[in-house]
Amino acid sequence: MSSEHRCGPGCSHGHHDAEAVGQFTEARRGFMKDVLVSGTALSLGAFGSSAHAASSFAGGGPVRTEKALATHYHIPATADTVHWGYFSKSLKPTVELESGDFATIETLTHHCGDDVERMIKGDPGAESVFRWDANGKAVDRRGAGPMDHPLGAGGGQGVHICTGPIAIRGAEPGDVLEVRILDVWPRESGNPQFKGRTFGSNAAANWGFHYGDLIEEPVKREVITIYEVDARGERNWARAAYNYRWTPQTDPSGIVHPIIDYPGVPVDPKSIQPRHDILKDIRIPVRPHFGTMGLAPVEADMVNSIPPSYTGGNIDNWRMGKGATMYYPVSVPGGLFSVGDPHASQGDSELCGTAIECSLTGVFQFILHKKATLENSPLAELAYPLLETREQWVLHGFSYPNYLRDLGADAQNEIFAKSSVDLALRDAFHKMRHFLMRTQNLSEDEAVSLLSIAVDFGITQVVDGNWGVHAIVPKHIFPARA
Question: Which PROSITE patterns match (predicted)?
């Protein structure tokens, strides 16, 4: 299921990996570099050698001492390495690694069935995951629902193909896991007819914010738009290939899907009417990122992959791409990190239901910060997913910060009826206030003023059950302090 490689200083086992590690070390600004915490100058600094397992905190030793040889794992996307539509604290890890280790992880979009010829055919990994015939499916459970659901096992109560989980040796509740995204690239179509190209699907679907508010007939319609991306990186924009309206699809098990209601249903090309020459001369900037990335929550054993929460998950922020770092609170032993829902591009809000859902591969490094080392550090009391880019810190607010805890026994159903932007905005405000007071040693009055004049709030998504608002603060507003 995975292969490993010992990489030390100067290793160049893959041009993507080696180049990415160098660029990341060169470009990355230290997290909260030169900020004042409780009167003490704190700097995580620019991480030195990429083979070092951790950074040092003021007032606390490193999580691990220098690790001369980091292990680099390769985790392909196959029927044996993915789980479809859910997070679970009971899943057996695909691999267990140590703090400081690297992993190249393949991810597949759950929308590959929207164009089998371009997104599945000729790709052994995709064919493995999406295999479905009259005798059954290679990955049967698709969602957190019951196995005997009338739509299919799991009921589509969760849709994302997640690679993993990955366990971090020694991770315990109360720790923080740092995940660095060193590189991201598109997965080339396995069909020789489309060599050098990658394809993604955008679904204007029944769960989209726009649905029920259309002005052309039929006013209730779902539309799939297939986009083409240059897999070789010579063109940094995507273009529309064609679109079609969803028609009732009969899956290989004989179940009819009048709407998009179960993931991975292969669309019969004879049943649709493709429209070409759409969005002519329009170039969509490619911003590869992972929509779903996070740890297993402790509150329930089988958790729908759609609503995000305090351990991450389906955040759908396009900033979670190459060069970014995510910090997650650990709630179960090992952390159990999974990644999926890869996107070629997306705008804030993901309004119609999806991004350009496009299979990607990423290179990641995992750094474990033990709870005992977090006192008087910026990561102390971290209870939400935190994103760091080269220029910004981004905090994620949700309608319900921990909906599994906040909404009771039926939380996974209740969340879809109770989300709102105002609740998510209030949560983002609370988190950014805490962040500024904690990391910049500000009073509440100072933090509130700064929130209004220097922090940008945006709608992350309004289609994932637990709606999201992000708060962005630029690093440059904080001067270095002696």
Answer: TAT
Helix/strand/coil for 313: strand
CA 172 to chain centre: 22
| Residue with token string 């738009």 | 225
Report which residue type is found at 91.
L
Q: What is the dihedral of CA 111, 395, 50, 167, to 10 degrees?
A: -60
Amino acid at 34: D
Percent of the chain with pLDDT over 70: 85
Cα–Cα distance for residue pair 381/14, rounded to 1 Å:
38
Q: Which CATH number fits domain 3-186+285-397: 3.20.20.70, 3.30.230.10, 3.50.50.60, 2.60.120.580?
A: 2.60.120.580
Confidence of residue 1 (pLDDT cuts 50, 70, 90): low
Strand partners, 362: 105, 184
Distance CA 288, CA 195 (A): 19
Any bridge partners for residue 240, and if so which?
A: 227
Distance, CA of 460 to CA of 478 (rounded, Å)? 25
* Helices of type H across 97-181: 116-119, 124-130
* 378, HSE (Cβ side, Cα atoms, 13 Å): 27
Looking at every residue in the chain, the average pLDDT score rounds to 89
Burial of 190 by CB count in 10 Å (0-12 exposed, 13-18 middle, 19+ buried)?
Answer: middle
SS3 131: coil
Q: How far is 298 from 309, CA to CA, in rounded Å?
A: 11
The pTM of the full predicted model, rounded to 2 decimals, is: 0.89
Q: Dump pLDDT digits (tens) for 249-258.
A: 999 999 999 9
